[in-house]
Design goal:
By secondary structure, the chain is of the alpha/beta class. The protein is 34% helix and 23% strand. The protein contains ten helices and nine strands. Keywords: Cytoplasm, Hydrolase, Serine esterase.
Length: 282
């Protein structure tokens, strides 16, 4: 599949690049960012997938999180896709910030008019890894996943729905129980319809309750001053309770004074990359 390089910048002795391609899953042009550490010049490297949150593109993480230095040191490729299809000319896709463009929620939509293009779950778990493994020095056996907010939800469900596929998972301020919060209910109603049993297929708390597979060590950082924590959009306690029932190890760190922004992510991204490196480089 043809890739077009959009940009390339030397960074922490490696290269931060952005590529564009025609997506077969999403039926549109998509961009993704990829950081290639210096180690990638001579050998295959594990891949850390980063899923961003509402309104983001492939740019937010690579320009704000400061992940490149740690990725360079640990020899890890970082791939950051966009958060939704773009330019599909679907009526209503630009109407709100938390549904449609920039808000794909990492599900495969089943409802018109979304179901043809809004297939971010399959894009992230199938099409994108195939593309990365066939075009870059990636070790196909070693991948992990992380994300923020809507992307934290995405990372958790990808790991829980595919036991063994990802060697590690972590999240910053994830939407942990979308079927119980306003963001999730809005998105799932639109993309998945009114049958709430289909919503459960994309809810980390529900998926944790029935998880069976290789042990998954989950790392979650959450800012204590996050306005979306206090407005009950994130609901981490529900996920922690489900994981504790199933004896899924979770390190949950409530970080004093931090909010929902990339300043928070920047502050703890090195810990997350180190967590992933422990499993990816084992």
């Amino acid at each position: 599949m043809a890739l077009t390089q959009v940009s390339s910048n030397k960074c922490s002795d490696g290269y931060q690049k952005v590529f564009e391609h025609d997506s077969s899953e999403l039926k549109c042009k998509m961009k993704f960012a990829i950081y290639l550490p210096p180690k990638a010049e001579s050998s295959k490297c594990p891949v850390f997938y980063w899923l961003s949150g509402l309104t983001c593109t492939e740019q937010n993480f690579i320009t704000k999180a400061g992940s490149q230095q740690a990725a360079s040191e640990h020899g890890i490729i970082i791939v950051a896709p966009d958060t939704s299809p773009r330019g599909c000319n679907i009526e209503g896709e630009e109407e709100s910030w938390d549904f449609g463009t920039g808000a794909g929620f990492y599900v495969n939509a089943t409802q018109e008019p979304w179901k043809t293009n809004y297939r971010m779950y399959s894009y992230v778990t199938e099409e994108l890894p195939r593309l990365i493994n066939s075009n870059f020095p990636a070790d196909p056996e070693k991948m992990s996943i992380s994300g923020h907010s809507m992307g934290g939800h995405g990372a958790l469900i990808c790991a829980l729905k595919n036991p063994g596929k990802y060697k590690a998972v972590s999240a910053f301020a994830p939407i942990c129980n979308p079927i119980q919060c306003a963001w999730g209910q809005k998105a799932f109603s639109g993309y998945l319809g009114s049958d709430k049993s289909t919503w459960e297929l994309y809810d980390a708390t529900v998926l944790a309750e029935s998880y069976s597979g290789p042990e998954l060590d989950i790392l979650i950082d959450q800012g204590r001053d996050d306005q979306f924590l206090s407005s009950s959009q994130l609901l981490p306690d529900n996920l922690i309770a489900a994981c504790s029932k199933k004896k899924i190890p979770v390190v949950f760190r409530l970080q004093q004074g931090y909010d929902h922004s990339y300043f928070f992510i920047f502050s703890f991204i090195n810990d997350h990359i180190k967590h992933h490196a422990k499993y990816l480089n084992a």
